[in-house]
Amino acid sequence: MCEVGTRPALPAGERGGGETPPGSALSPPALPPGEKCREMGEQPIFTTRAHVFQIDPATKKNWVPASKQAVTVSYFYDSTRNSYRIISVDGAKVIINSTITPNMTFTKTSQKFGQWADSRANTVFGLGFSSEQQLSKFAEKFQEVKEAARLARDRSQEKTETSSNHSQESGRDTPCSTRASSVNGTDDEKASHGTPSDAQLKTENDKLKLALAQSSSNVKKWETELQTLRESNARLASALQESAASIEHWKNQFSICKEENDQLQSKIEELEEQCSELDKERERNVQLSRRLQDLETELQDKEMELEDLRKQGEVIPQLMTECESLSHKLQAAETRNQDLEEKVRALQTEVEDSRHRQNNLKTDLQTFLDVLDGKIDELHDFRQGLSKLGIDN
Questions:
Q1: What does the DSSP 8-state code read for residue 5?
Q2: What average pLDDT does range 175-188 have in this prediction?
Q3: Cα 50 vs. chain centroid, distance in angstroms?
Q4: Which label site among 171, 194, 293, 294 has the fewest CB atoms less than 10 Å from its CB?
């Protein structure tokens, strides 16, 4: 497996200088990355474009941009070592050189961003894609490459175990051609190292078909849930519209009741004015009653005076002239008495009329008070209904 640059890459355990520090740039490549890796035996199997980030080595929390713009990110397969790498170059700077191992995990942290940790490089790489589909394709390819790396590791372990068994039996190292031929022959072994076998391809194909079927079922389930959510949203919208219409109806009812209440208040004020006029009529009736008593007293006095004059006319005949004059006075007094009697009758008639009107006013007032009590009870019931409606809403 080649490293993008002028010198080959060594595994982490064979590097004399320890682990490569995160973000360190290798020497500029003499050829483009794809051409150089092709010369060294690596082939690109998947290519996409993304914004590259690395975790801040100081805080281990914040992301540090490794590229100013979207760059090419490729999967490379080394047929000589049967290993996979993710490589990305920004101009003359290598920003990703990560060998994929079976222990790695690619995690989607959002709809367009994913990350994986590389223990050999002692860092965490992050990729920001322009669409969710590109992220999904990259994640699927990462899983495929991870599975292929696991299978390659298992085959390498089996090969190592077989080689150790043959070396223990022969007591010396077995050449590569002998080890290969001891399993399936030299040509078969080389073919198995270069490309996956038909059984493995069939297994991977079955896995992909199963994943595709699961994805289709998930898509159908999500479509069903989306349709359910849309229907629920429509029902909620219609309920909200009905609630708004009901609120408008109750607002109109409230305004109507408020107008009726204002009208009742104005009627109450009118009745209060009528009651004040009734009190004034009562005062006038009391004054008329007092005047009538005064007139009756004056009439009694006049009658007593007339009686005295009659007695004087009977006792003193010589006072006939005076009696005649007194008769004239008596006639005038009688006339005046008649006038007073007529006035008394008129006053009594007025008093009776006033009492009758007072009784009628009392009856009307009692009727209005009964109607007013009914309206107040209706307003109280309406207010309780409004309060209950507000609590329900």
A1: S
A2: 35
A3: 35
A4: 171
Please list, in sequence order, all residues whose beta carbon lies within 8 angstroms of the beta carbon of residue 119, skipping any fewer than 6 positions away: none
Tell me which residue of 174, 193, 175 sits closest to 184, measured CA to CA.
193
Structure confidence by residue, pLDDT tens digits, 324-364: 887 888 888 899 889 999 999 999 999 999 889 889 999 99
Contacts for 147 with CB less than 8 Å, ≥ 6 apart = 102, 204, 207
Beta-carbon contacts of residue 125 (< 8 Å; ≥ 6 apart): 52, 53, 54, 86, 96, 98, 115, 116, 117, 118
Residue 314 has a CB neighbour count (10 Å cut-off) of 9
* Residue 162 CA, distance from chain mean position: 65
Question: Residue 49 forms beta bridges with which residues?
Answer: 72
| Per-residue 3-state assignment (H helix, E strand, C coil) for 106-122 | CEECCCCEEEEEECCCC
Asked if the model's pLDDT at residue 293 lies above 80, the reply is yes
Helical (H) or strand (E) element with 257: helix 198-315
Strand partners, 72: 49
What is residue 211's three-state secondary structure?
Answer: helix
User: Nearest-5° angle of CA 173, CA 175, CA 181?
Assistant: 120
Amino acid at 227: Q
**Which 3 state secondary structure label does DSSP give 179?**
helix
Contact predicate 54/63, CB 8 Å:
yes
CB atoms within 10 A of CB 305: 14
Cα dihedral sign for 234, 235, 240, 244?
positive
